[in-house]
Amino acid sequence: MKGLLVKDVLLTRKMQGKTFACLMLFAFVMAFTTDNPFFAVSYITFICSIFTVNVMMYDEMDNGYAFLFTLPVNTKSYVISKYIFSIGMTVISAAFSYLLSVGVCIIRGKEELFPEGKMALCSILLIVILYLAMLIPVELKFGLEKSRVAIFGVTGLILAIGFVISRLMSKTSSLTEKILKIIYGMKAYQMALSVVALCAIILFISYMISLKIMKEKEF
């Protein structure tokens, strides 16, 4: 599995390294120029999640699966490596962007935005984990040719879910206020544990679906 993870890191650096560097520079500038530096947290984390899923496209190119599974690699280790790589890159990018935003807030004297930043970090992690949990099985199922359509389809579904939730929250303002009050009142470790538990459940269901898809494939 270590070899699979190293392969994904090297592929990402080779195929998307320059694009990634430009996006990091853009996010750095954006953190200093926007009213809310924590917007960079959502931006960087979401973009990095797309990069990680793109690596699966390269595995399939030129009968890559047929070659890959002649090595000491099985479907279970392959699927696990994809989730570890995707989640690892997501967490690293979220942590990096959050620390960057905190630093910018301190420099600009906007420490009052820290609670909002905590909320932004937890929210984007949940959204991206849900995005990855839906997209990875879709990528494995439909492959390279339909991957672009899959990405747009899953992205559209996530946006639709977000829109429905926002509409429901606007219609139940009192309930929304109570929920936000509870969230803002949570300690950092309580919020972290809640996010981790919810993400673990979502990812486990996604992993089981992905594993079943890979076992049914013919190489």
What labels would you give this structure?
219 residues, mainly alpha, single chain
How does this model look, in words?
The structure is a single chain. The chain is mostly helical and 219 residues long. It starts with a helix and ends with a helix. It is 86% helix and 0% strand.
Summarize the model shown.
It contains eight helices and no strands. The chain is mainly α and 219 residues long.
**Class from helix and strand fractions:** mainly alpha
> How far apart are the termini?
19 Å
Order of helices and strands: HHHHHHHH
Overall morphology = globular
Outline the low-pLDDT stretches: none
Average pLDDT score? 76
Q: What's the total count of β strands? A: 0
Give helix % range: over 70%
Rg from C-alpha positions? 19 Å
Number of helices: 8
Question: Biggest β-sheet, characterized?
Answer: none
Share of β-strand residues: under 5%
Topology:
Blueprint: H1 2-33, H2 39-60, H3 64-68, H4 75-108, H5 114-142, H6 147-171, H7 173-185, H8 188-216
Helix pairs in contact: 1-2, 1-4, 2-4, 2-5, 4-5, 4-8, 5-6, 5-8
